[in-house]
Each structure stands twice: as C-alpha cells, then as structure tokens.
Amino acid sequence: MNGWQAIIGAVAGFGLGAAGSLITKRLSDRPAPIASSWWLGAIVTALAFAILAWRVGAHGELPIYAYVLALGIPLSIIDLLEHRLPRIVVVPQLVGTALGLTLLCVARSDPGPGFRALWAMLAGAGFYLLLAVLVEGGVGSGDVGLAAVVGLVTGWSGWAELAGAVVLASLIALALLLVPGNRPSRAVPFGPCLLAGMTVMVLLAA
Question: What would the pLDDT profile of 159-181 be if each residue is shown by its tens digit?
Fold first, then answer.
C-alpha cells in the first residue's frame, strides 16, 4: 500500500512543486533561470512527497507535513539564492501548520501532542531569536519564523525530534560554511538547513 501512496505523493508533489516555482519567481529579486524553473521545483517536491508518503503513510500528519514542504522548498531556493526567507510565505506556513495540528488534536481528542508542539515552537523560535541577537547578521527574522514551524512539526512527535532537527541543521550549516571557496564571514542560509533537519527527523519518527 505504501508503494501506491508514494506514487500518488510523487504525482501530487510534481504538480504542487511546479506551482510552487511561481512563488520562487515572484518573490526572488534576482530569479536564476534554473533555480526558479518549474521543473526543478516539480522534481524536488515530487521526490520529497514520495518519500514522505512512503514513510508516514495514510495518517493525518501527512497533509500537514506535505504543506510545510510544499512551501518550504520555494523558501529554501530563495534562501540559497538571496539569503532571506520572505515572511509572506513563512507566516502562512506557520499558521497553516498550527491550524492543521489543532484539528488533529480535536479529531483525536488528544491535546497532548498539540501542547508539546506549542512549547517546542516557542523553544525553537526562542533559540534562533537568541542566535539572532548574539550573532549579528547571521540569523534573520525569517529564520526565527521558520524555526517556529520546525518546532511545531518536530515537537508534535517529541522533544528528541526537535533537538535532532536543530543539531542536524547546525551540522549542515557548518558543512556549507566549510565548502571550499566559502569565506568564513559568508552568511549561511539557515532555511534549507532547518527544513532538511526537520524532514530527516520526521522521516525517522514515522
């Protein structure tokens, strides 16, 4: 059954990824031909959705995780190109995720995971807000907002998932900083790092 779900996820991801490329084009100050092309977003989103559907299966969390990634992939591309995360995308991503998880709590008559996700959201956002204060120019408001999203998603599964996502994001950021040719002072795009860490932990927790 999961095989068919992966195929359906890939098809849905391809369509949503192609549509998501419009976000990249519209919000990029300097849209790159390949990065903002419809086919790149379609392929990356299709692959992400296929793996997500295969691992998570037909559970209520699946559309919520898919929603986060559908907006997260255009955000990652913009952050990689321009080192910024537009709030016009991050805010709906946060609100939609919170609403989806709230509906799950109501449907399952189990508020426990929702309260944990709320506290994890505050913890994730607070941690990156502290980094923004301590590391001038290294972390922006968009990173703080996206950290809140990551906190919600991973906190729904558990505190270990939140901690794992933050550690993985930090390791990925360090690896990007150590890429040959990068200057030590060069800003690292935290958005893709956070989303990658979140995705890995969600897949491991499924």
Answer: 999 999 999 999 998 888 887 65
